[in-house]
Amino acid sequence: MTTYGRAAEESAFVRTYTVVRGRTKPRHLLALETVLEAGQGRPGPAQAEECEEILALCRERRRSVVELAGRLGRPVSAVKVLVSDLLDADALVVPLTHSYADTGAGSGPSTQLLAAVTAGLKRKWPDAVAYPQAG
Question: Can you tell me the distance from the alpha carbon of 22 to that of 14, in angstroms, rounded to the nearest whole number?
């Protein structure tokens, strides 16, 4: 690696470290596929400029954590810390899907949703071993 390449890599690492203020763990449990949308709150004045970029992307449409990391060109771990800050400020929310939002706690997905998922899986893998249906 050239001296310039190494300096650029170290600079990117230092920048990421300062963006998250040295933190390595988010306060919220976030998976790579966690979907986020803009909320009603506002980020604090001390938030990194990446927080504004995250909000702008989530205002366009719902985005996953991994998509945000890719768009920002930052490590997923750093984006999770920033997203966690934005969740604390209610600037981002994790939307509930309609199937779960209107049903009681613990009721799970609707039979229509499960049927649609099953049909999609059968189309994707038609030769897969079928399991007996519960009757």
Answer: 10
Q: Is 93 exposed, middle or buried (0-12, 13-18, 19+ CB in 10 A)?
A: middle
> How many residues are given for the chain?
135
User: What band does 69 get if pLDDT is binned at 50, 70 and 90?
Assistant: very high
Judging by DSSP bridges, how do beta strands 63-64 and 92-93 pair with one another?
A: unpaired
Cα 6 to chain center, whole Å? 30
Which residues make beta-bridge pairs with 2? none
Q: Which of 8, 23, 5, 12 is nearest to 74 (CA)?
A: 12
Q: Which amino acid is at 113?
A: L
pLDDT one-digit tens code per residue, 71-117: 988 888 889 989 998 998 999 999 876 545 555 555 666 677 778 88
